[in-house]
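Hello everyone,

My group is preparing for a crystallization screen and wants a predicted model to guide construct design. The compound we'll soak is zinc ion. Before spending weeks at the bench, it would help to have a computed complex in hand. I've included the protein sequence and the ligand's SMILES below. Output in structure-token form would be ideal because that's what our pipeline reads.
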Amino acid sequence: MNRWGKLFAPLVVVAVLMGGLAVPGQAAVSEDEFILTFPHRDAETHFLSEFGVAKPDGRIHRGVDLFATRGTEVVAGADGFVQKAQRGSRAGLYVVLTHGDGYESWYIHLGSFADGLQVGDPVAAGDVIGYVGSTGNAAGTSPHTHFEIHKNGRAIDPYRYLKDAFERWILSRQIEAGETPFR
Ligand SMILES: [Zn+2]
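Reply:
Good plan to model first. Here are the tokens for the complex, ready for your pipeline.
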């Protein structure tokens, strides 16, 4: 990167993040763009772009694994309804939420559900739906939530939604804590 690139790249990042906070629902996003709330209440969560990668058993990884401390709160990624809250042999405890415009979010290998969570319940973005664990075929692995986004019945790559949601959440925490020069 040249000298000007070094100078301006951080400014562009801040401008983009501020723009995303200042004008929710406007600007660069299209009308039906899915805006995700980061699904873990743990700023140390780590995750990689790994959608579509073949697993050792030959199946394709249809989501992104969010690694965090066991017991971390897992929250609804958007407003919607609880479509499933059940146990599967591979998925372990899992929740599926339905949202508008054909979107669903999936939260797999949970350690436990939030108290009282029921199929059909409405949820708001950020509501606790469960806790990080390693149930199903994740037993023996580091605790993580296998997270998927589906659009019109098909899994789509959730990585850019997660990255964007994580950056917005971290920035909002910094603003609340007075750690940023702009308010
Ligand atoms: Zn996974």
